[in-house]
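Final report, closing paragraph on structural work. Over the funding period we assembled a curated collection of sequence-structure pairs, and we close with a single example.
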Amino acid sequence: MRKPRDIECWLTDMDGVLVHEEQALPGAAELIQRWVDTSKRFLVLTNNSLFTPRDLAARLKRSGLRVPQENIWTSAMATGAFLADQPGDKTAYVIGEAGLTTAVHDAGFVITESDPDFVVLGETRSLSFEAITKATRLIADGARFIVTNPDTVGPSKDGVLPAAGAVAAMITAATNRLPYVIGKPNPMMFRSAMRRIEAHSESTGMIGDRMDTDVVAGMEAGLHTVLVLTGVTTEADVATYPFRPNQILNGVHELIEQI
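Its predicted structure, as stored:
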C-alpha cells in the first residue's frame, strides 16, 4: 500500500481542505510551503469555473496562502483541455465568466452564437433567459452540450446559490439532451490535471473533503486518496459509502508530519 512519503505529486481540493470561508485552515500554508521547498509537483483543484488562475491565486493570497497561479487547476481549464482534444470545428457558444471564456480561448476556440460546434456551460452570476434560450436552440440544432461541473448549488455569504448543474438540468429538460460534465466526480478532471504536471497515477495523491466527488474520482483515477474532516464530510458519513479513502485525517496539518 502506498504511503504519503511515497507520493511524488499531489492534487488537492481547495474549499474545505485548504480554506474555509476565505480563511486558511490549520496546516494549509505549511503544507503548500513544504511542497514548494521540496519541489513537489502539485495542483490545487476546484470545480468553480468562475475565476482564472490569477484571480484564484489572489483570493488565496488574501486568505494567507501563497499558491502560484501555475499550481491551480479549475474545471474551466479541464474543460478547455477536453475541448482541445475533440474533433470538429473549434467554435463554441459559452455561458460563463472570465475563468471559462479564457480557458475556451486558450484551447484555440472561437466563441460565437452562429452555428457553434459546442455549447459550453459554466458557473455564472449574470445568467439571462436569453442565454438559456439561445443555448437550448443551439443544442436542439445539434451543438454538443458540455458542462464544466455538476454542482447544483454553490455557497455564498447569504446562503446557497443555483449552480451550473441546476442550469444544465433546465436545458436538458428543454432539449432532452444530457451534457457531458467535466468536473469532479468525473476522473477526467484528475487525469487532465496529472497531464498538466506530468504525473502518474501510481505516485499521485488526492486530498479532498467530499466522499462523493474528491474520494470517488480519485479512487477511479487510481490515486492515493486522503479524506480530511475539515469540510462537509464527517467520519460518520464515511460509513454510508461502499468505498473508503486510503486515509482519513482531521486536517492537512496531520499530513505534514507524514510527508
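Residues 122 and 148 are 5 Å apart (CA to CA). The mean pLDDT is 95. We thank the funder for supporting this effort.
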